[in-house]
Amino acid sequence: FPSKRKGQAKPTAVYKFVKEHGKTKRIKIGEAIRHVRSASSFDYALNKAVEKIVLAPADGYFDQMIHTMPEIKDVGRRAFHGVSSHSFRRSMAMYMFYTLKWDAAVCMGVTGHKSLDAFYQYIDYKTDGLAEMMQAI
């Protein structure tokens, strides 16, 4: 999702947060032109797109597309409820690791995890030999 202000990019305020006397203050430090959406704006746009998919009239297009996806064809449009940028991130991490067989360290570079333990928890990795595997590393 590109920025809402595609053709007319206007500067938006940039703030830093400072703790003072136990309270957090927001201080404006400048302006920047944003070419992509913020995380919250992205989630808002994604929710609107999902809403359109779920509520679209039964014209056959969405249902035909869904029918070609074996993972969700039995669930139908209900599969899109609860979709978020975080669910995409987690699904991507699991797809890279389990399906594409990418190395955990490479996946961690994409997801931003700092430790193998945190990454393995994130993708629900369970194995009897996990402790031995981690000791070998």
Q: How would you characterize the overall build of this protein?
A:
Helices cover 45% and strands 15% of the residues. With 137 residues, the protein is an alpha+beta fold. It has a two-stranded antiparallel ribbon. A hairpin with a 2-residue loop joins strand 1 (11-20) and strand 2. The radius of gyration is 21 Å and the shape is flat. It starts with 10 loop residues before the first strand and ends with a helix.
Tell me about the largest β-sheet.
2 strands, antiparallel
Strand order of the largest sheet: 1-2
Count up the helices: 6
Query: In terms of per-residue confidence, which ranges show pLDDT below 50 for 5 or more consecutive residues?
Result: none
Terminal Cα span: 39 Å
Overall 3D geometry? flat
Structural class: alpha+beta
Proportion of strand residues: 15-25%
Approximate helicity band: 40-55%
Query: Could you tell me the number of beta strands?
Result: 2
Give the integer mean of the pLDDT values: 80
Give the topology string: H per helix, E per strand: EEHHHHHH
Query: In oligomeric terms, what are we looking at?
Result: single chain
What Rg is obtained from the alpha carbons, in whole angstroms? 21 Å
Strand and helix map with partners:
Layout: E1 11-20, E2 23-33, H1 39-55, H2 61-67, H3 85-99, H4 104-111, H5 116-122, H6 130-136
Antiparallel strand pairs: 1-2
Helix pairs in contact: 3-4
List key phrases describing it.
two-stranded antiparallel sheet, 15% strand, alpha+beta, 137 residues, flat
